[in-house]
Amino acid sequence: xxxxxxxxxxxxxxxxxxxxxxxxxxxxxxxxxxxxxxxxxxxxxxxxxxxxxxxxxxxxxxxxxxxxxxxxxxxxxxxxxxxxxxxxxxxxxxxxxxxxxxxxxxxxxxxxxxxxxxxxxxxxxxxxxxxxxxxxxxxxxxxxxxxxxxxxxxxxxxxxxxxxxxxxxxxxxxxxxxxxxxxxxxxxxxxxxxxxxxxxxxxxxxxxxxxxxxxxxxxxxxxxxxxxxxxxxxxxxxxxxxxxxxxxxxxxxxxxxxxxxxxxxxxxxxxxxxxxxxxxxxxxxxxxxxxxxxxxxxxxxxxxxxxxxxxxxxxxxxxxxxxxxxxxxxxxxxxxxxxxxxxxxxxxxxxxxxxxxxxxxxxx
Length: 364
Prior knowledge:
About 25% of the residues lie in helices and about 25% in strands. The protein is of the alpha/beta class. Strands 1-11-12-13-14-15-16-17 form an 8-stranded mixed sheet.
């Protein structure tokens, strides 16, 4: 039986122009997103025939470059990657320490001690209108379609034990996820997202406000999931408008304890400093990067490289796997900016830049 408890801790405390699309084009893109999971044969034909043409279109607006799969910022040379493609982990792999698969944007699978967790499911295919934002964080355009540059991994999601949602925005919980994910999986989410999840048919909802946690049994111990503040903006009024989102501190307890801090869409604020003061050192930090909104009128909505390096230092993170970069057109800063700044500042953490769809052992 899962427990939910309130935990005291004092933690309370998004210019490039997008393609101009017609209403008919947007409708076709949305329809393709809905049908892609149901008609794989059509999708396969599209991939082999039309994808090269789409790639030429998207290359003009894709973000620059990717970094090495695994980098130690204190060294100029890349260390060997621990990423490998393959099916879901078996018991021996899981017992060795778990693993992670990044599936683009904010979406990742974490496996450890018999549990499989999915973060912020954004599952729709690539295209010029992966989702629509009420107002583009850079341009301010209303009802702005946002392009996805890469398809999600072809490998199925497999068995899921927990879905973790940071907040109910279209770029973190898309229409394909709402329609296709199993409805009886335990769904840990902010209270503000409960209504949307319930309307989509999900039945096992575990809402967590800031400083509340749920405890889930694992193969050899238990997992504590604690919700912590994720301030979406430094502007208090905009932060309130965007809604109250969560980050999560995940602590596996048992013979081989392990801690993960997944930030959700958070900028570097005093509440994040409080998380660092309480939980440092963190074994693995999963920050949302991309500097969303850095070129907009109201500023950052996710961390840029400078903020992320400062936060990683306070957290005394042993390892960093940056996510929420590269995949979508509203991300403004390449992940290489973080790697370079971490090296310049001599950040002692090991930075592992993931590859879409590849499995990485959880670093220790």
